[in-house]
Write a structure and sequence with these properties.
Elements: E1 5-6, E2 10-14, E3 17-20, E4 28-30, E5 40-43, E6 46-49, E7 54-55, E8 57-62, E9 76-81, H1 95-98, E10 108-109, H2 112-121, E11 126-129, H3 138-150, E12 154-159, H4 165-172, E13 177-181, H5 187-194, H6 198-211, E14 215-222, H7 230-243, E15 250-254, H8 269-281, E16 287-290, H9 295-298, E17 300-301, E18 308-313, E19 316-320, E20 351-354, E21 358-359
Parallel strand pairs: 9-11, 11-12, 12-13, 13-14, 14-15, 15-16
Antiparallel strand pairs: 1-6, 2-3, 3-4, 5-6, 7-10, 8-9, 8-20, 17-18, 18-19, 20-21
Helix pairs in contact: 2-3, 7-8
Length: about 350
């Protein structure tokens, strides 16, 4: 645990002020103060990370909860986060963690090696950097990922993709997969409801596609009246197909009133189905609905012959129609992603982990 872990993505402005260059906020921070994320601080004239080695908790989840549907389906994933965030989403559903300035939210101390070993001991094939955005605990996440790689544990970033070019390159060299929140396809939405901007997120997606081998999927939380119009959904899915390709899975998930948007109604199921249909009309081969019960539209279907390849009911897997090398059993079409010869059997369980005592 280190309250003043040194970082490198910053530069000095004046005698008592520095600029953080980790994300496009470019926070200008006075001595003794924190940036927008609360966790990167000007300490003695340098930007330090004040949450290194501390977590808001550890949990074993189904990997489909991240959500990732094309990366080791059915397997458990060891999940953890820290505190703070570099976005200000008014609809945040982890606001108690992401908006916390309080260090008491960081209940568990753990070295990177301890986390990697805990994941292994829990029977997990992967670790998720989640609950809040791993961009802001960049150094800790990278060290954990490197420790995981030493014992063949995969690393999965669950992120909004709001990061600058140089740290982005360093971060994704250590990641195997990501789920990126494409929160909207509208700059006004980003500015008004997240306090951020759209283009840096698109830049991250373009980078992942063109410059890395990271498997990634997209998630859009559809909020009634804000980002669910036919026009926006067409524009978004067309951009995805043209720039990222038709094989990048898109998840359309239901909003539930929370944080500063309790005045908005929950997303109707029909809105999610409409978004999925629009995406597929525009060439997206794998589109899913989430946060609702819909085995039909949560399952994976062969884009070539229409056979059901992976049956899902919430986070439970049913029928499995892939060959050992990840192809459709009916027509032989390859399903993009990372698949094993047999699916995992973790199911929908959520298991809390205390690093001193093991699983709870």
């Amino acid at each position: 645990m280190n309250d003043h872990f040194p970082t490198k993505y910053w530069h000095k402005l004046t005698e008592d002020r520095v600029q953080c260059d980790l994300c496009p906020r470019y926070c200008k921070i006075k001595e003794g103060k924190q940036g927008f994320c609360y966790v990167r601080e000007n300490y003695q004239g340098a930007v330090v990370l004040n949450t290194y080695g501390r977590s808001s908790g550890f949990c074993v989840d189904p990997i489909e909860k991240k959500p990732l549907n094309h990366f080791l389906p059915g397997t458990p994933i060891f999940s953890f986060g820290t505190a703070g965030c570099n976005l200000a989403c008014k609809f945040c559903q982890n606001w108690d963690i992401s908006k916390s300035r309080q260090q008491h939210t960081l209940a568990d101390a753990a070295s990177p090696e301890t986390i990697a070993q805990a994941a292994h001991n829990s029977g997990c094939r992967s670790v998720a950097y989640t609950y809040n955005d791993p961009v802001i605990f960049h150094e800790y996440a990278i060290d954990v990922a490197q420790a995981c790689a030493e014992i063949d544990i995969k690393s999965v970033a669950v992120t909004a993709g709001y990061v600058c070019e140089e740290p982005r390159e360093e971060f994704y060299r250590t990641m195997d997969a990501a789920n990126v929140d494409l929160k909207s396809f509208d700059e006004t939405f980003y500015h008004k409801l997240t306090g951020a901007h759209l283009q840096p997120v698109l830049d991250t997606l373009l980078y992942l596609k063109a410059e890395t081998s990271v498997w990634f999927e997209l998630t859009t939380l559809l909020i009634p009246g804000e980002n669910d119009s036919d026009q926006e959904l067409h524009a978004m899915s067309q951009w995805v197909v043209e720039n990222l390709g038709p094989e990048v899975p898109m998840h359309f998930t239901a909003f539930h009133p929370d944080w500063k948007m309790r005045d908005h109604p929950p997303t109707p199921h029909t809105t999610l189905s409409r978004a999925r249909r629009i995406a597929m009309e525009n060439g997206v081969r794998y589109a899913y609905v989430g946060n609702v019960h819909d085995p039909q539209e949560s399952s994976t279907w062969c884009h070539q012959c229409g056979s059901r390849l992976i049956q899902r009911d919430w986070y439970e897997l049913g029928s499995w129609a892939l060959t050992p090398d990840g192809c459709c059993q009916q027509c032989g079409t390859k399903l993009p992603g990372l698949f094993e010869a047999e699916p995992g059997v973790w199911g929908s369980r959520r298991q809390l982990v205390n690093l001193q005592r093991g699983a709870l």
